[in-house]
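Quick note —
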Amino acid sequence: MRLSIDSPAACTLAKTSLAYSCVFLMLLGSCVRADELSFADAVVTLSATPELTESSGLAFSIRDPNCVWTHNDSGDRARLFSFDSRTGKPTGRCELLSAPAVDWESMTTGDPDRGELIVADCGDNLARREFITLHRFPEPDPSKNTRLDPSQYDTLRVQFEGGPVDCESIWYDVERAGLVLLAKGRLPIAGVYFVPDDSWNGDATTSTPAAPITARRIATIGLPMATGADRDLASGNVWIASYLQAFCFRRGEHANLAEQMKQIPVAFDMPRLRQIEGIAIDANGRVWVTSEGSPATLAVSYFLKTDPAPVRQVR
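Predicted structure written out below.
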């Protein structure tokens, strides 16, 4: 979500973020660095879609592993675009009719057995929103143009434990059976929140939205400015993107998600794209990132291999 560069709020936010970023850079040395980076194994331009000007969320299709879904940041209507990840050519679209789109920031595949997508209208730069909104629905055919009416998708209002939070990163945790949300902290401190599957009422035909449920804080990590996240279904590794780096929190032998997120992650330098906003793991365990860009033909996906060096445990 953009703020006017002349507004007092934007000036304050910029100064605060700069100060905290300096602190974070000093702390970054505590991350384990990958021994060998493997960026730019492939570069794909998402083409022929002028409406896609701020590619933000990113998720690979369950129905067709070669296809990837994305959506615009704030300012667009409630819709997704699908592309062939090998060529960058558009394959289909999906629009959620009557759904609001205040600040769509992230998306993810849900329970693979149910074949779902989850989209998060969760951006909140000034941390003022009373609640955010999640939408969940069976993944449509990525090779077609689909329009879903409100009876075809579930909507869940969510408030964060402790008060409003700016959030741009979600992923689905199969082991815990629920959605994980990560705060985009200005400080190098970010809360990890959890929404279990049973929070959804499962009745998409209800005309009156239910009261917000509370996302419980389950962990805190030393990471600022997270812009995207995903979980590798095969390995259980969690990948988090920021503007400059990607961080891998390996599943390993950790007892649960909270313990997994307490470890020192492996850090990878990001390619120098305009503004990295999304990250997703494909069926082969490769990590893709996408950046905002206008025109949409300049929106590029990169991937790197998920073979980081072993993680040094906290003592």
